[in-house]
Amino acid sequence: MNSHRTLNNVLRIKRLYSYLNKNRTQWLSTFDITATQCDILMFLYDNMDNKEINQKSLEEYLMVSNPAVSGVIKRLQDKGLISSKQSTIDARNKCLTLTKPGLHCAQTIIEKGRDSQDLLLIKGMTKEEADQFQKLLNHALKNLEVKKGK
What does residue 52 show for φ and ψ, rounded to 5 degrees? Predict the structure, then answer.
């Protein structure tokens, strides 16, 4: 493949990320949370049935370092949106859960359009194009995950 074309694809993906992040940050400012804080709230909300969610699972999900996640968790705790308690499985871990205000915030974000950025991204595409786009994104991500593991 032409290396110039590959570079253009990387730059296009970077631009997509920048636009999405800017739009998302602006939208989430009405909730007084950042995109990363929202990601953590949504992860906790989507995994409420799991007995214990610890910081390590958030680090793996978000693909960020321990100090970065620690800071975001602290800010969410300061806002009263999440709480932590000692794990019943492993006393070295703390389990994270949504508080009542955190649950309300997560539900409000979902009701007001958590998926609006996804819809904006595929606007104007046919269902077949959107499905193909999803497959191509998954394929590209899988390629990079395999490379990362080597």
Answer: -140, 125
